[in-house]
Design a protein that fits this description.
This is GroES-like protein. Keywords: Metal-binding, Oxidoreductase, Zinc. This protein folds into two domains: about 1-155 and about 295-340, Alpha-Beta Complex (Quinone Oxidoreductase, Chain A, domain 1), CATH 3.90.180.10; about 165-290, Rossmann fold. It is of the alpha/beta class. About 25% of the residues lie in helices and about 30% in strands. Strands 1, 4, 5, 6, 9, 10, 17 and 18 form an eight-stranded mixed β-sheet that branches. A six-stranded parallel β-sheet has the order 13-12-11-14-15-16. Strands 2-3 form a two-stranded antiparallel sheet. Helix 3 (about 145-165) crosses helix 4 (about 185-195) and helix 3 crosses helix 9.
């Protein structure tokens, strides 16, 4: 193994049982196996989907260290590693690895791998001083990017970037963003910088100035007007990106779509949406979901963010306040990031 100096053990925060809170744990150092590297964590974003660990929505083996928005520097590699070297800055997002063998992997659609690994879910994540990442899912991160802003881009950023670039929409058609929070404030910037006529959809007027600063051409406040009707006055939205979890709001936006428009579901919402098939036929409407992307998608997204000055608004917490950071995931205005070396 090639490595820089490393401790015999390190500190992490893990869920040790279903329904429990984060607990401080001491993790013995393990050298990386073939196909793995170890990073010293610089930053790890706190995502709403981290709650799937204590809720055991996926099968969880406890204790489990959550966190899938990881930025770190490589400190240890196995003897035969050729892609990564000690000192490289890399990231780990939701996609933690793939099998290379299933039907989806064979066509290169690694994010839908039938045997996918998930950082912080099926393997330990980044609420820790160190994290082990699989090499096929590791993301190269430019060292001149702010690591604290880059961390949330590995989930929130890739979700909005990768989904939008795969939609049937061209500049200067209308892209509307429902919700101006952790996902939405990034989506507004990306939609504007991709050249679309960008519309912010919110439930009050409190974020109007911010939305325009982020790139919105128009702001539609649902407390004053019907958002679907206002979108039709603009010619209809080719894509409506639903980033805030509210099923009733989402279904009410369908009439705001243009011909061949898409209601793009990105928020973590388990409540059902009621849609009449008849309402979709005449304009050939679509409803689609999207889940982030794999390593190359993430590298594309980081390059786009770097080239176009896409910023992320973050609140930082030290590792020893991981539980507090986790509790702020829903109440924070935008994104929460755990920084192990933060005093």
């Amino acid at each position: 193994m090639t490595s820089s100096n490393h401790p015999e053990s390190y500190t992490a925060y893990a869920f040790t049982e279903k329904g429990g809170e984060l607990s401080r744990v001491t993790v013995p150092w393990k050298d990386p196996k073939d196909g793995q590297v170890v990073v010293k964590v610089i930053a790890c974003g706190v995502c709403g989907s981290d709650e799937q660990v204590p809720k055991a929505i996926y099968p969880i083996q406890y204790p489990r260290i959550p966190g899938h928005e990881i930025i770190g520097d490589v400190v240890a590699i196995p003897p035969n590693e050729t892609k990564w070297k000690v000192g490289d800055r890399i990231g780990g997002g939701w996609h933690g690895g793939h099998c290379h063998e299933c039907a989806r992997c064979r066509v290169g659609d690694y994010i839908t791998c039938e045997n996918a690994a998930i950082n912080g879910i099926s393997m330990d994540g980044g609420y820790a001083e160190y994290a082990t990442l699989r090499i096929e899912a590791a993301v190269r991160v430019p060292k001149d990017m702010d690591p604290y802003e880059a961390a949330p881009l590995l989930c929130a950023g890739i979700t909005v970037f990768n989904s939008l670039r795969h939609m049937n929409v061209t500049s200067p058609e209308v892209v509307a963003v429902q919700g101006i929070g952790g996902l939405g404030h990034i989506a507004l910037q990306i939609a504007r910088r991709m050249g679309f006529r960008t519309v912010a959809l919110s439930s009050s007027g409190s974020k109007k100035a911010l939305a325009h600063e982020l790139g919105a051409h128009e702001y539609i406040d649902s407390s004053k007007v019907d958002q679907a009707e206002e979108l039709q006055k603009l010619g209809g939205a080719k894509v409506i990106m639903c980033t805030a979890p509210n099923a009733k709001v989402m279904e009410g936006l369908l009439p705001g779509l243009a011909v061949d428009g898409t209601l793009l579901l990105l928020a973590l919402e388990d409540a059902p949406i009621t849609i009449s098939p008849l309402s979709m036929l005449g304009k050939r409407l679509s409803i689609r979901g999207w889940v982030c992307g794999h390593a190359v998608d993430s590298e594309d997204m980081l390059q786009f963010a770097r080239d176009h000055d896409v910023g992320v608004m973050v609140s930082k917490f030290p590792l020893d306040k991981a539980q507090e950071a986790y509790e702020h995931r829903a109440s924070a205005r935008f994104r929460v990031v755990i920084v192990p070396d933060l005093p």
